Amino acid sequence: MEGLREIAWSNGYTLPDNVENQTMAKYRWFDKSKYIVRVDWNSFVFGDKRTGERYKVVNGELVEKEQGIKI
Length: 71
What we know:
This protein is mostly beta strands.
């Protein structure tokens, strides 16, 4: 899912190599407060729990974005 990686990269996130193969609804924590969750087979949510920043990607397209707070 190339769109997912491009969206993450443009927002300052580097996703794990195996993100497309992870099981559904499984959290992957990296950089301490950052996370990614596979919601279903075509949807991912990633963000930063410390700032509240959140992005939802469906079929490789950004469909939802919350800025959170700047620290």
